[in-house]
Amino acid sequence: MKGIFKLAYKLLVNDKPKFAALIVGITFSVFLIVQMMAMFSGILNRASATILNVGAAIWVMDPAVQTVANTIGMPDYVLDAVKSIEGVNYAVPFYSGGALVKLADGTYQAVTVIGLDDTTLFGRPQLLEGKIEDIYGENAFIVVKDTEFRKLENPQIGTQFEVNDNRGVIVGIAKVNSNSLFGVPTLYTTYYRALQYLPNPRFTISYVLAEPKNPADVPRIKRQIEALGYLALTKDEFIDRITTFYKYQTGIGTNILIMTVMSFIVGLSISGQTFYTFVLENLDKFGAFKAMGAKSRELILMILFQASFTALTGYGLGIGLCAFLIRLARARLPDYASVINVWNLSFAFVMVVIIATVSSYFAVRKVLQVEPFDIFRG
Question: What is the DSSP letter of 147?
């Protein structure tokens, strides 16, 4: 068996132009598939940035909310009702809204303002500079140092600006786990300062963040909140809701799917045609193997080995190329959002297996039909 695989390997790599064409076709296909899916994963990751950064176990919201940025205000009694539910350890209000900041040079910059509960500061970011208690100071804000930080002219502690004709002062610089999707800087302040500085509708609570006493209490808490006419989702459920929205209710998911299918078709057509041509050009050799006593099962194993070897080699090169270009793009473009995860790799691997299977199927049929008599007669 080892000799059969060695012969198959030599037969494959000795035809350098065909071997190179096979590798390039699969590599290009894997690169496109993983790149498209990595871009989509990066978009979804950033779309859920606020949920990941805050880390609340239960998010209470209006049932019409589809994404964390699409906030719909709730009345204050919802917070009191959630606090009174049996099994809730604590519940706090959470504000998320947009604003325009006037910088020192007179320019305006859109920002996202996060208002944390004044008592607990639940969901606060990790500070790089400053002290968290300074957020209670007059006009105090904390800025997130992410890829959008430079849009605020790289502020330092003590930097001043205006928010809706109100003075603001940077008292801390923080970092978060995930950057935002929409390309705007993020400011943290207290909940009541956010209400005071920003224009708001009649209902002001964007979300109620709740922590259960026990994970077993979550279903009961959700049912009681639904009885109030509102929606309660765990962190993972909220992320899934956002993912579903971007997949099926925007053009992003459809466009990514079309590009992924096109990449698969390109890889399948190039690899399948090249591999079939390779087998046709080497039919005399397969016929000679058959004349020397090689069984059909051994010839099939040779074809499968060749297809698997080229598919796995192209898969590895495609992943490596994609990872290298993503790393290069992030170094040049801080806002570039692409994430390679296990699902991207698994999906690309399945696609490569399909490409290898289809390519080898037609090749196997052709090899099994060849007769040694026809080869030697020719």
Answer: T
CA dihedral (258, 260, 264, 269) positive or negative? positive
Backbone angles phi, psi at 144, to 5 degrees: -90, 130
- Which of 177, 173, 145, 144 minimizes the C-alpha distance to 46? 177
What type of residue sits at position 145? Answer: K
Among 284, 270, 309, 317, which residue's Cα sits nearest to residue 10? 309
What is the distance between the alpha carbons of residues 173 and 140, in angstroms, rounded to a whole number? 12
SS (H, E, C) 251-309: HHHHHHHHHHHHHHHHHHHHHHHHHHHHHHHCHHHHHHHHHCCCCHHHHHHHHHHHHHH
**How does pLDDT run along the chain (378 residues), one tens digit per residue?**
667 778 778 877 887 887 888 888 888 888 888 888 888 888 888 888 899 899 899 999 999 999 888 889 999 999 999 999 999 999 999 999 989 999 988 899 999 999 999 999 999 999 999 999 999 998 999 999 988 898 999 999 999 999 988 999 999 999 998 887 777 899 999 999 999 999 888 898 999 999 999 999 999 999 999 999 999 999 999 999 998 888 888 777 778 778 878 877 877 777 777 777 777 777 777 777 777 777 778 878 888 888 888 888 989 999 999 999 988 888 887 777 788 888 888 988 888 888 888 878 877 777 777 666 555 555
Token representation of residue 137: 């100071």
Angle between helices 296-332 and 16-47 (to 10 degrees): 50
pTM of the model: 0.78
Contact criterion met (CB below 8 Å) for 93 and 117: yes
Residue labelled with tokens 């500070």: 127
- What DSSP character marks residue 124? P
- H-only helix segments in the chain: 2-14, 16-47, 49-54, 76-83, 191-197, 218-227, 235-248, 251-281, 283-291, 296-332, 342-369, 372-377
